[in-house]
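Let's inspect one such protein example.
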Amino acid sequence: MTRRVFRYVPYAITQDASAEPEYEARCVSGDEVECGAESGTYSRPDPVEEWQRRHTQDTGHRRYRRDFADYAVLRPAVELAEA
């Protein structure tokens, strides 16, 4: 019989600084069919928010689906304490 010992190692989840986050929005205004216009993907939220303002001015649409994506890294908590 093989004996195994599992040791709990606490991990911290941090944003991966080597990869830029991504921000984007899509217009979901419409009663039966969504508008579907998209902002495009940016590494900062500012251009997406400006696109939303302009799209609302041009169309009167006011409902958006916003997406944020990033990469996460799990590091043993002891590594963070040593840094």
Q: What stands out?
A: DSSP finds two helices and four strands in the chain. Strands lie at 11-15, 22-27, 64-69, 72-76. The longest strand covers residues 22-27.
